[in-house]
From TrEMBL, chain A:
PANTHER family: DIPEPTIDE TRANSPORT SYSTEM PERMEASE PROTEIN DPPB-RELATED
Protein name: Peptide ABC transporter permease
Membrane topology of this protein: Multi-pass membrane protein
Organism: Bradyrhizobium betae
Main location: membrane
UniProtKB/TrEMBL annotation, chain B:
Any single biological process term in GO: peptide transport
Source organism of the structure: Bradyrhizobium betae
Keyword list, A-Z: Signal
Entry protein name: Peptide ABC transporter substrate-binding protein
CDD domains: PBP2_NikA_DppA_OppA_like_17
UniProt keyword Signal present: yes
Cross-referenced Pfam families: SBP_bac_5
Classification of source organism: Bacteria, Pseudomonadati, Pseudomonadota, Alphaproteobacteria, Hyphomicrobiales
Record bears the keyword Mitochondrion: no
Length: 315, 532
């Protein structure tokens, strides 16, 4: 188990190093930098002013020097300054993390709490009207872009209730606070819930055909005990994998959801920072997201080992 | 007796009605004006930007020496009023503009405002001071200013190289606030200090901008509002829905398109919406330094192919104007008369005849039904640029030109134009001030940084100077018309149309005036109040 842990940790560090190199150089390959954008916005360019600004921001230095400055700073916890707001990058990033974390957490909770039970029901009731209805729901969830779904929710809210559930930084009641996150979380989590439901269903169906399930039934175990104690416990591994992957992919869905619901989270902030080529923000934020995703995968790997002793022993 | 009573009752009712109207029209103090903002401005320094995304939230923080009257829609020389200046006078053969400054004005940090602040600001704009702006997009506005001199704390003079009556108009723009000497340009980008009706509270990028009432404002009794809060909502659908739902008191000025306006009016019938021109011209930039547009015949053919009314009809449901460089009348002050405009090739009402002439020119250049000219039409990847570019491509087909749309991200647009890496480009030009000096020198003068096409005509350049020095408005107008006509005939930067846009606010918001010949100058908001 210890060797397994050490190997996974080492792989994690190598992955993070690779990501840092990729982020840094990909950003530089994209045409234009902050100085180009600032002058484009001003509709003129003065070569001397441009050179001064590039020097001031340090983007006139060789790439390898820029990389070293960034990565050594990141390791020391010095994230530099945003090129746009001229405030410390960490000061810009940190307040946005809890907002996105809450949203992502709620979306994942929505995904698991809706997707797993409905997936189990769909599998257990295979071939019934209920199964067909649930499969239509899951297919809809996979087909509807969260951007479109979000706009639909907003339009319907305004038309039906005269209210719009966009982000409210100062909610007056707990209901407002809940709506601030719950509605967009449902919009972004609907797709994840649909995916979780499908994976749970197919995994359950596979397990329900196993000999040991038949044995359990033969021994007189109740339906609930068979479905939830024997079958679900063994069918859950691929579902955990999918939820882990979805946690990483959620950032993509959150970008549009944060835009539609006007939530000042990190996902929308990241897109804006890319638009401005605000390297300190983009690099550090992507790196932080990478750390979270790689750590989430690491935790999922550890959970595998906890849930399936064979992984522990073979590794 | 009954009729007397009835008359008395009617009189009482009338009096009540009059008193109610008077009461409702009386400005009320208080309230926070909530407005959405269309995007997150890069910083808070008006002098370092060239977008009204900066002027709208930060103009209320500052004062100018002089300003266009905020309750009149049209910016004119005769409605420029003193602000930090109490009065002004032209002296020395119109080569010196002297301002007497207001006494007792304080910056938001409590320090006194003096003539030194005015000198600092304009020295910095002219690039003559130790402290520098990171960007200085309107440096050319002050090309004719030799220096700024002060006489005590309350008098300042602009000493010019030659007379330039329009300097006063430039100083009245929302782009010309006075900055404090004691605050660095860097600090002004993040935490602006002004003398204006509202104090800066905070700017959270991509989130919000907050201003609060300046209780120590020099204009007693103003502002009416306790503050202004801008919520940044880049998604237009979300923003409009939020306005309709009553989350905001005002939509971002001039940002409601004509089709969206219909939605707003149907969903929020009580909202007040106005449609005004905004002195933004959609135009074509032509790379005349390389084939095929180095051939004047092809350039002229392209100009002749334009069906301007079709652009306006498709994009704005007819709510737009055809004109030259200067904004069309009645909102624009310097527009050519209709008959003069229609005498310019391509502006005549018979589009088919124009195109027939264009085809002849194309055939003369070696193109025809069997040999089309393939061109790339470059434009920024923003709907207001992209949509007319698509219509342009369609219209060019009628004269044997096959256009291919080349959408360019904003970051790459200006570098691409600057290195002349384009054939045709569809561009928008916003004019901060409805004055020929701002428009001609900036966009058509030889060597100007914003003269993207490098159009250079020394004869016209001389005329720019002649009109610029002319103090007789009538004579100046005629000079301006001739110049504008010549610019269109030279296909310097063919103007397609001048757009009109909508602005909306809730019915209880009072004292809002949308300017009709500039979208940069009307956001002081000290006269705005809320009747609720």
């Amino acid at each position: 188990m210890f060797a397994y842990l050490v190997r996974r940790l080492f792989l994690m560090l190598v992955t993070l190093f690779g990501i840092s190199v990729v982020i840094f150089f990909l950003l530089r390959i994209v045409p234009g930098n902050i100085v180009d954008i600032l002058f484009a916005a001003a509709g003129y360019v003065d070569p001397a002013d441009k050179a001064n600004l590039e020097k001031e921001l340090g983007i006139d230095q060789p790439l390898i020097v820029q990389y070293w400055h960034w990565i050594s700073g990141f390791l020391r916890g010095d994230f530099g300054y945003s090129y746009v707001s001229e405030k410390p990058a960490l000061q810009e990033i940190l307040p946005r993390i809890p907002i996105t974390a809450r949203l992502a957490g709620l979306a994942l909770l929505f995904s698991a709490s809706i997707g797993i039970p409905l997936g189990v029901i769909s599998a257990v009731k295979q071939g019934t009207r209920l199964d067909y209805a649930l499969r239509v729901v899951s297919l809809s969830g996979l087909s509807l872009p969260s951007f479109w779904l979000g706009l639909l929710i907003l339009t319907a809210s305004v038309a039906m209730f005269g209210q719009i559930p966009i982000f409210n930084p100062n909610p007056q009641t707990w209901l407002e606070a809940f709506a601030t996150y719950a509605v967009p979380a449902a919009a972004v989590g609907f797709r994840s819930a649909a995916l979780t439901m499908r994976i749970t269903r197919s995994s359950m169906l596979e397990v329900l055909r196993q000999d040991y399930i038949r044995t359990a039934r033969a021994k007189g175990a109740s339906d609930a005990a068979v479905n939830y104690h024997h079958a679900l416990k063994n069918a859950i591994l691929p579902v955990i994998t999918v939820i882990g992957i979805e946690a990483a992919f959620l950032i993509g869905g959150l970008i549009v959801t944060e835009t539609v619901f006007n939530i000042p989270g990190v996902a929308r902030f990241l897109v804006e920072a890319i638009r401005w080529r605000d390297y300190p923000i983009v690099q550090n934020l992507v790196m932080l997201i990478a750390v979270v995703v790689v750590s989430a995968n690491f935790i999922v790997d550890m959970l595998y080992a906890v849930f399936d002793p064979r992984i522990r022993y073979t590794d | 007796m009954r009729s007397v009573r009835a008359l008395a009752a009617m009189a009482a009712l009338s009096l009540l009605a009059i008193s109610t109207v008077t009461f409702a029209g009386e400005p009320k103090q208080g309230g926070i004006l909530r407005m959405y903002h269309r995007d997150s401005p890069g910083n808070a320094s008006i002098h370092e930007g060239a977008t009204y995304s900066l002027n709208v939230p930060f103009m209320p923080v500052f004062n100018n020496l002089v300003i266009y009257k905020q309750d009149e829609a049209q910016n004119r020389m005769d409605n420029i009023v003193p602000e930090l200046a109490e009065s002004w006078a032209w002296v020395s053969d119109n080569k010196t503009l002297t301002f007497k400054l207001r006494q007792g004005v304080k910056w938001h940090d409590g320090k006194p405002f003096t003539s030194a602040d005015v000198k600092c600001t304009f020295d910095m704009l002219m690039g003559k001071s130790q402290q520098k702006f990171r960007q200085n997009p309107r440096k050319t506005w002050y090309d004719q200013v030799n220096d700024i001199s002060t006489n005590g704390d309350l008098e300042v003079s602009f000493n010019l190289k030659r007379p330039q009556p329009s300097l006063l108009a430039l100083l009245a723009s929302g782009y010309t606030p006075v900055y404090p000497c004691h605050v660095s340009p860097g600090d002004m980008r993040t935490h602006p200090i002004g003398t204006g009706p509202f104090k800066f509270v905070e700017f959270k990028a991509n989130e919000s901008i907050k201003l609060t009432r300046n209780t120590d404002y020099w204009r007693k009794g103003r502002p009416y509002l306790d503050g202004i809060e801008f919520t940044i909502i880049p998604n237009r659908s979300t923003a409009i829905l939020a306005f309709v739902a009553g989350k905001f008191d005002m939509a971002f000025p001039t940002e409601v398109s004509i089709p969206l306006l219909k939605d707003v009016k149907s969903q929020a019938p009580n909202a007040v919406c106005v449609v005004e021109p905004n002195n933004v011209a959609t135009n074509i930039i032509v790379n005349s330094s390389a084939p095929p547009f180095d051939n004047i015949d092809i350039r002229r053919a392209m100009a002749l192919s334009l069906d301007r009314k079709a652009f306006i009809s498709i994009m704005f449901e007819g709510q737009g104007d055809v004109g030259g460089t200067m904004e069309p009348a009645p909102a624009g002050l310097w527009a050519m008369p209709k008959e003069m405009l229609e005498s310019i090739p391509g502006y005549g009402p018979d589009v088919n005849a124009n195109r027939e002439e264009a085809r002849k020119l194309m055939q003369k250049a070696g193109y025809g039904p069997d040999k089309h000219l393939a061109v790339k039409v470059s434009t920024r990847n923003i709907p207001v640029y992209r949509d007319p570019a698509v219509i342009l491509i369609d219209q060019l087909k009628s004269i044997y030109i096959d256009g291919e749309l080349d959408v360019v991200e904003t970051a790459n647009w200006f570098p691409k134009i600057a290195r002349k890496d384009y054939m045709l480009g569809l561009n928008l030009t916003g004019n901060a001030v409805d004055d020929p000096d701002q428009s001609f020198y900036e966009n058509y003068s030889c060597g100007s940084e914003r003269n993207y096409t490098n159009y250079c005509n020394k004869e016209i350049e001389k005329l720019f100077d002649v009109q610029s020095q002319e103090t007789d408005v009538g004579k100046r107008k005629k000079l301006v018309w001739d110049i504008d006509k010549k610019l269109q005939e030279d296909v310097a930067r063919p103007i397609i149309f001048h757009a009109r846009t909508g602005s909306c606010w809730q019915s209880y918001v009072k004292g809002v005036t949308v300017m009709s010949n500039s979208s940069y100058n009307g956001y002081r908001y000290e006269d705005v109040w809320m009747d609720k």
